[in-house]
Amino acid sequence: MVLAFATPLGDGTSIQAEVEAARFGLSWSLEMGYKNIILESDSQLLVAWIMNRAQHPWSIDNQLRKLQQLIGQIKQFKCNHIYREANCAADSLSKHSHKITSPQVYFNSQQLPKETKAYHQLDMQEVTNFRRRKTKRIKEPP
């Protein structure tokens, strides 16, 4: 683990939060001197917009433009979609961001919130996570 963070982003949509999180992570990575970066996101839309495979809405144009400027500074950049189940630690930090009032940055696994730390440990042990789909029960008439 190099860095993990949770930051309250206030009002907005989930996709705005995804873009802001990507900007924060890339900005920090560039400041630390990293030039070969792989960005993983559980948002297929964000990945498509970053890779210019789909048209983004005008409402996030400024955010996405700033993100693209950061990407332009990276020597080697790759952006991948991964399912949320393959990124439980990041999903846990996303949920944690709703409980905090100021940004929190973690530089080692011991600093992580309790639930996130547990997911990170499972990741380090390469424990498989399964994607579950809820099924609706159909009630039989009497």
UniProtKB/TrEMBL annotation:
UniProt xrefs under InterPro entries: RNase_H-like, RNase_H-like_dom_plant, RNaseH-like_sf, RNaseH_domain, RNaseH_sf
Location of the RNase H type-1 domain = 3-96
The domain of life is Eukaryota
GO molecular function ontology, one term from the record: RNA-DNA hybrid ribonuclease activity
Q: Which PANTHER family match?
A: OS05G0353850 PROTEIN, RNASE H FAMILY PROTEIN
Q: What is this protein called?
A: RNase H type-1 domain-containing protein
Biological source species: Solanum pinnatisectum
